């Protein structure tokens, strides 16, 4: 899906920009986001809902995958709403100019301050638990009715890494399904709350379609219950979770297949249970932004462990991509300045951090390389920058947006000054200058 090609200098080009030139210009490591790929994915969701779902629909970008001003602005310009999960994400989306009517605020432990910020901003709050529901009911008394949706735990299992499953019964997220009646009746009596919909999310990087079919059935039952209590619940958000291809071995359904399945399942459940069609919402993150970005690194030192493996180190690692060390995620990479060279070596790509586990890719086939060559790790748009850290006080990389041969900075590279900006040195600790 990336608008990539190999140019006549045997270098990788993305969005019409030579990756090696980008690195020379913007430094290394570098997140390179292909605008066309991101926009195409937004349109695939949008157009396929129009095609397969007879009612209204709304796509919400789960910005936890990558929240920054430019991405919020791009998805909003494609007509998507934005899901935020903290005051910081909310602030970023608002700063990007996203209309609060198109913002949904999630989270299983929003602070009172965050709730006040959300109420003031006018976004819709996806309520996760009793404490939040009661806090909101009391906050909202003083102003006009607050728009909420209710997050429920559907009790649906799916096959993905246990850290990123959320729909099973012992998940920390959402109201227990046994409490649906109680929650709905509380909401129906809270004049200050206007419940517009119901939400559930079952997990991430999911390759099967069946869990979302099952989810549709469960959620339509809840919709029916809400209607019977006279609640104006017209929106149903089935969450995100569609997996993407990180290596050749991955074979996820297409966006079209996913949207078709979800749409048909909701329509079928509504017909079977005689419930009017809701506004169908979904909340993809990874499948929108994941394939649209690559990370370029510069190759450095090399260590050969005879008969075992050869390490090749890059100038980044778990601080800019914590997914391999966190979830044992697998990535694919190419050498951007030797695109057609034969793959003659099996290598382990190590990060620069002081941890043996800081390995980005195990046993990858690469051509003969030299220090200074550019390694490009593919599909790094989701949960890389958003989970990046300053471990070992490594500054966060820059990010550029590429399109039609133009590159614009969307994330300025952090400097050493940025790293100490929030540090404070109490007077009594100041060292005597020598
Ligand atoms: N909606 C809710 C309520 C979510 O919790 C999530 C993801 C999404 C939507 C978007 O799911 P997606 O379409 O991106 O699968 N850090 C992990 C992934 C955590 C996912 C958290 N929730 C990773 O790097 O794999």
From TrEMBL:
This is Diaminopimelate decarboxylase. Substrate binds at residues 286, 323, 327, 355, 383. The active site is at residue 354. GO terms for molecular function: diaminopimelate decarboxylase activity; pyridoxal phosphate binding. InterPro entries: Ala_racemase/Decarboxylase_C, DAP_deCOOHase_LysA, De-COase2_CS, De-COase2_N, Orn/DAP/Arg_de-COase, PLP-binding_barrel. The lineage of its organism: Bacteria, Bacillati, Cyanobacteriota, Cyanophyceae, Oscillatoriophycideae. Pfam families: Orn_Arg_deC_N. Pathway: Amino-acid biosynthesis; L-lysine biosynthesis via DAP pathway; L-lysine from DL-2,6-diaminopimelate: step 1/1. It comes from Aerosakkonema funiforme FACHB-1375. Homodimer.
